[in-house]
Amino acid sequence: MPTPLIAIVAARLASGRVRGWRRAGFGVPEPYVTAIRRAGGRALFLPPGDAAPPDELLEGFDGLLLAGGGDIDPPRYGEEAHSSVYGIERDRDDTEVALMQCALERGLPTLAICRGLQVLNVALGGTLHQHLPDLPGLIPHGTPVLDESVYHDIALTAGSRVAKACGTDVVTGRSHHHQAVDRLGAGLVVAGTSQDGVIEAIEPDALPGWVVAVQWHPEDTAPSDPAQQGLFEALVSQSS
At residue 238, what are phi and psi to the nearest 5 degrees? Predict the structure, then answer.
């Protein structure tokens, strides 16, 4: 059986971001790639900004993974930018929203992580809380601009795709995000929340194919936590 090919959209790396590189580049954090490899898949990168139609970009791929990264440009979901917004890549927004919409139409297995969850929500008309520290009564969710993470439990909806992939209804996730789902996009349901009510997992209610989106970073703890690795196992299995 051929090895399932999983597309990952790369992030833009500014000049000087990589030591010894005088010019800008593109990259994907290694933990995503190794988690896919452990699951028996092969990760291939797509640079953002390609003018080709999304169905052409996804031609030959068996699955899609949307990784973490900077914030989505708020005007894309009808809001002005909060002062905390960082890391805007409009070409990546364009590419990932188009690929997500195409993947949903084609039923292409998709795992969306952190920023990727937000892309799914925005692609289907949803909105985001732009800065969680502005909301009262929340537990810490990490500080991405300082690369500060926290660990907290997430209660998953019994019988949901995400719960089946993780093999449990409660997981402990590594979290570093300052944004989260506000209004759900069309056709999406909540599949997991933290103890403060922040939405931590969403998935389509009735669309074809296997699509799971989580707000935490399962790739970080997948080497030692079977529940987190289970998400990548499910993606690759569904892509076979």
Answer: -70, -25
Could you give the maximum distance between any two Cα atoms of the chain, in Å? Answer: 51
**Cα–chain-centroid distance for residue 231?**
12
Q: Is 102 a catalytic residue?
A: no
Region 141-170: mean pLDDT is 93
Binned at pLDDT 50, 70 and 90, residue 143 comes out as confident
The residue annotated as part of the active site, out of 152, 176, 177, 217, is 217
Q: Of these residues, 89, 96, 114, 177, which one is catalytic?
A: 114
Strand ranges (DSSP E) for 77-147? 110-113, 128-129
Q: The whole model's pTM is what? A: 0.95
Please report the pLDDT score of residue 83 as a whole number: 95
How far apart are alpha carbons 181 and 200 in whole angstroms? 8
* Dihedral (Cα; 113, 116, 120, 125), 10-degree rounding: 130
Catalytic member of 89, 96, 219, 233: 219
217 catalytic? Reply is yes
Q: Is 166 a catalytic residue?
A: no
- Decide if pLDDT at 209 tops 90: no
As a dihedral over the C-alpha atoms of residue 133, residue 85, residue 51, residue 204, rounded to 10 degrees, the angle is: 10
